[in-house]
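Duplicate of earlier report; Tetracycline resistance protein input re-posted below.
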Amino acid sequence: MACGIAVGALLAEDLSGTEALAGVGTTAQVLGTALLTIPVARATAARGRRVGLRWGLAVAFVGAALVLVAAVLRSFPLFVVGMFLFGGGTTANNQTRYAAADLAAPVHRGRDLSIVVWATTIGSVAGPNLVGPGKALAHALGLPELAGTFLFSLVGFVLAWIVVDRLLRPDPLLTARALDAAAREETRRTAEPDLVADPACGGVVDVPNHDGSMRRGLAVVRSNPRALQAMVVMALGHLVMVSVMVMTPIHMKHGHAELEVIGFVISVHILGMFALSPLVGAAVDRWGAPPVAMTGGVVLTLASLLASRSQAGWSGLLLVALFLLGVGWSCTLVSGSTLLTSVVATDERPATQGLADVLMGLAGAGGGVAAGVVVGSLGYSALASGSAVVGVVILAVGAARVRHTAAELS
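Output:
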């Protein structure tokens, strides 16, 4: 995924012939991530995590292939379709963090979830740095140089699909459901030894809810303010991160930065997104999700303000800003994901987690579209300054939950 993210905006500008559409490719990918979550969530609810993950990875493979074809044919519309399907890879990646939490002990849920987020670091940091080798490979194969990195994406999706298919056994969600059902049955038998689990005999039978629809997720959120808070934190954090990140390559290009330098900056940003996530998860387990969400809001605000003051092209200030942008996003993602998993029942997880990722993706897609417009009319500095305001909103959302918890305790 990181390969495509690093060159998506540049390839979009090249194929469209205008800077105004530079963010469309990445925005299509983010939108695809959001909308493809809907069928993945339904498949997961019905048949388990393994089926959902395989589906997302297969769609992403098709998307990467279409992007390659679009680059050869110089077709911007086909490129947009390919990037939309390419988003299935992020959909699958997003769902892996929930798979990690399905069987986690409550006291270590943040840690276990964050370890899987951290595992993304190696591929994510290496991905943008494959821009140079991808360019050389493209030249050797007679392909446009910006399309070369998508060849690495194709290989990555195949390997990921094999790992999920062969090694994700037993399925964590299906196992968690079975354990929950066994625990409920044991509790029922202990409380009422003579209870017969047959409605005809006066007993009670659990009817599992395997509805992974967005409608079901909305129903759960309406009655669960903590789940809503988790979704808002993740959505706004993603909005800030995507808005600034997607236009940073264009900002650097305006300053005549080399393609390899742009790839390095994006790799440092992705390092910030994932490398420190185990520490973030430990903080969530120790102090709770709302304080970590507040920290994420502060870091995102600082990162955006630093980016707003950076010069076009290469600068150390921009490098620090993009790293902090990733760290702030990690705080909102891990805290929100852990809180969401903690406050909903096992059977409700696919629907609510799917809804959360849809909203997060739509927020990112909206931010990507707005980012291109803002940069085209007002400049990169204005975009980053506006993102800082959203960071303050995240801080307020986390603080509201902390005050509510304190009031309940008193």
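The CA atoms of residues 65 and 286 lie 44 Å apart.

Merging into the original ticket.
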